[in-house]
Amino acid sequence: MAYEKISSVTPQDVKAFLLERGATEECRCCGRHALKIMAGDGATPSLVFVPNEGGMNPDSGTLPVAVVVCQNCGTLRMHALGAIIDWKRATDSQG
Ligand SMILES: [Zn+2]
After folding, report:
1. CA 70 to ligand 1 centroid distance, Å
2. Is the dihedral of CA 8, 9, 11, 12 positive or negative?
3. How high is the pLDDT of residue 1?
4. 15, 35, 74, 87: which has the highest count of C-beta atoms within 10 A?
5. By C-alpha distance, which of 63, 60, 19 is closest to 37?
6. DSSP assignment, residue 26?
7. pLDDT band with cut points at 50, 70 and 90 for residue 3
8. What is the pLDDT of residues 5-59, one digit of tens each?
9. 74 CA to middle of ligand 1, Å?
10. 68-82 in b/e burial notation, b at 16+ Cβ within 10 A?
């Protein structure tokens, strides 16, 4: 997966994806509508997998994610960017 494809996902894409999939816009911790989507800001946030016995270690060693932050209580929520990219490709090819 090329970096250019990852960085092409905008916060608007993430929001459209989450709304279409039925994700809530409320923070699950404090219940406020204060979520901010961190995506498309240049560097792509990623989870890093540290090799360990019997643990998960994908080929790349990282999993790009869209991070959703509650601006009220600071709760972090993450969604795999791969799922959003697949959805965006399918949506773009329909339109
Ligand atoms: Zn919150």
Report:
1. 5
2. positive
3. 38
4. 35
5. 19
6. S
7. very low
8. 456 788 899 999 999 999 988 999 999 999 998 865 566 777 777 766 655 555 6
9. 6
10. bbbeeeebebebebe
Give the C-alpha separation, 3 to 24, whole Å.
Answer: 28
**pLDDT reported for residue 77:** 92
- Global pTM reads 0.75
Within 8 A by CB and 6+ apart from 55, the residues are: 49
Q: How far is the CA of 22 from the centre of ligand 1 (A)?
A: 19
Type of residue at 21: R
Backbone angles phi, psi at 74, to 5 degrees: 85, 5
DSSP class of residue 89 equals H
Q: Around Cβ 54, how many Cβ atoms within 10 Å?
A: 5
